[in-house]
Amino acid sequence: MFPGELLRLVDIFTPNEIETASLVGFNNIDSWDKASDAAHIFLKKGVRHSVIKMGSRGFLLTNQKFEQIYPSIPVEAIDTIGAGDAFNGALAVALNEGKTINEAVQWGNAAGAFAATKKGTQTAMPSRSELMVMLGKI
Asked: What is the pTM of this model?
């Protein structure tokens, strides 16, 4: 279990389904309902926005005002290592540039999808122009 006192300091929490299951004590996160239950556990512990990444299925964004499932961008995945890192990096850039959380997670979605189409991790991170192309596919 993740120490609750730390979660109340978290604005945006972006675990994948395996990390989420471990943190909330579930055997797995194999449905959107379980992802929602886990997200609400995080919110009760003080997280402002929970973004549970479910790989090729997409991700669930949950906060006190709404909950939304976002499908992943269909790509021919070559190597998914680093896709979550790309997601988080683009999410952070978008927020830093003043985007809303809904816009920012779409940037993350596009970056993660792009990264999955390349081999490696650091070399798979999209440039801004590559990210803009992927955003056009949403």
From this structure: 0.91
